[in-house]
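Quick one, tokens below:
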């Protein structure tokens, strides 16, 4: 896939040889990204993506050669509920799958991450730090990871989006400021 996508993280738990948890919880603010903004996902941000029937894969450490499950094989189940985007993953009965379950049960691995493409977003520059809300996104993959992080290379995509949103807002902001000064 040649598209640049963004990656975010969450937690994972092992239950009955399955991994379950939330890929993302709605309206939960992220950590401060690049020291400039925080981000949250609006409820049902992935509804369109999930309804499309795309084959979403579950990976280990974002490595496509370490496939853990996929929606088309029904080894990965994804659903949106009132809390967020929930997943249930049945890892394969392979060395990787068995080792992963042991590592999660021991607490050595507790992170989830996901890759996505933004389709619709909203920026609020009137708060500090500014706030990005993802309204609609295409889910590309989910991944089990030992180091859930916001990789700098992928955050640059969000930062470019923020700069574009600021540029679009400037004419409107200037008009509002002139109206304020004019007493309108």
């Amino acid at each position: 896939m040649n598209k640049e996508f963004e990656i975010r993280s969450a937690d994972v738990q092992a239950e009955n040889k399955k991994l379950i948890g939330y890929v993302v919880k709605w309206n939960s603010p992220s950590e401060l990204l690049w020291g400039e903004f925080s981000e949250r996902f609006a409820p049902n941000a992935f509804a369109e993506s999930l309804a499309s029937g795309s084959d979403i894969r579950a990976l280990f450490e974002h490595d496509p050669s370490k496939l853990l499950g996929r929606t088309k094989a029904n080894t990965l189940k994804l659903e949106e509920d009132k809390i967020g985007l929930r997943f249930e993953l049945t890892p394969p009965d392979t060395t990787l799958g068995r080792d992963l379950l042991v590592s999660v049960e021991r607490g050595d691995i507790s992170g989830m991450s996901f890759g996505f493409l933004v389709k619709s977003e909203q920026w609020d520059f009137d708060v500090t730090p500014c706030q990005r809300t993802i309204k609609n996104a295409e889910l590309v993959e989910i991944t089990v990871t030992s180091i859930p992080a916001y990789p700098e290379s992928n955050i640059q995509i969000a930062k470019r989006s923020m700069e574009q949103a600021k540029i679009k807002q400037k004419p409107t902001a200037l008009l509002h400021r002139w109206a304020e000064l004019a007493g309108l």
